[in-house]
Amino acid sequence: MDDGPVMLRRATRRAPVDEAALVLEASGLHPIVQAGPEGFAVGVPAEEADAARAALRAFEEENPTAAPPPPAPPVRDASAAAHALALCAVLVAFFALTGDRRPGVVWFERGAADAARVLGGEPWRVVTALTLHADLPHVVGNAVAGALFLSGVFRTFGFGAGALLALAAGAAGNLLNAALRAGPHVVVGASTAVFGALGLLAGSALVSGRVRGLRRRRAWVPTGAALALLAMIGTGGERVDIWAHGFGLACGLALGALATAAGERLASATVQRLAGAGALAVLLGAWALALR
């Protein structure tokens, strides 16, 4: 009595079934492919079932199916590029108000990150200094780089949380730089926050890579790329403060890793609004203290 074919593999697409049929045929068996309303199936006559299972198992062990790529991270700010450009436009507009750095300008006297004054009781300078620039090329360079990196930060963390994290990374970098110098050393410019933004992206990629099960070496690639970029664009020029850039990058790495570990809690609209309001309050409060 004929018991009919034994179906061994089923799939919604034809290609996997055809592949299994080729394996069975190459093993000297007689595959039977059937199509139905639920997809496709491949089988063999009942007397060949054991041999067919062994052949398919051996093939699959030698040719493991590639793991599906990890899902793309969620985009938390659909208008990230526009928000980054707007923020950098504000930075340029503020430069139009303050002008170049020169003696006697109140903005620079009250807002520059003078290491001695920062450590002497004026910590708000680590924030206000991020909004000041020595000249037009300085502010334009930071605006261009900032628009690039901040758009990535806003996509990853959201506009509100991203702005607060970038501000925190820049301020922390300036504070560490002041602590290292401790003497008559003055810093202005958003570049510490720009490299902080780069660090945020690298820290996020590092943590998310490990969460998704990437190999350890691959997970560290974003950090290496960030350090390489620091070496290329963060160390040249007379007025470049490599320590401020490096501290900004390091603080961004730490904050980006912590924020990514927080997971979906950052996605809350309430968190985004509170974080954005917090960033604005810190910035305005710092200037209020500087100009009081």
Number of helices: 13
> Under CATH, the topology of the largest domain is which?
Rhomboid-like fold
Rounded to the nearest angstrom, the radius of gyration is 29 Å
Under the CATH scheme, which class of the largest domain? Mainly Alpha
Task: Name the CATH homologous superfamily of the largest domain.
Answer: Rhomboid-like
Which outline best applies? Answer: rod-shaped
Largest sheet: 3 strands, antiparallel
Number of domains: 2
Q: Structural class of the secondary structure composition?
A: mainly alpha
Cα(first) to Cα(last) distance is: 99 Å
How much helix is in the residues? Answer: 55-70%
| CATH architecture annotation of the largest domain | Up-down Bundle
Mean pLDDT: 85
Q: Largest beta sheet: what is the strand line-up?
A: 1-3-2
Oligomer: single chain
Give the low-pLDDT segments: 213-219
What does this molecule look like?
There is one protein chain. The chain is mainly α. The chain has 2 domains: 57 residues, Alpha-Beta Plaits (2-Layer Sandwich), CATH 3.30.70; 212 residues, Rhomboid-like fold, CATH 1.20.1540. Helix content is 64%, strand content 7%. A 3-stranded antiparallel beta sheet has the order 1-3-2. A two-stranded antiparallel sheet has the order 4-5. About 2% of the residues have low confidence.
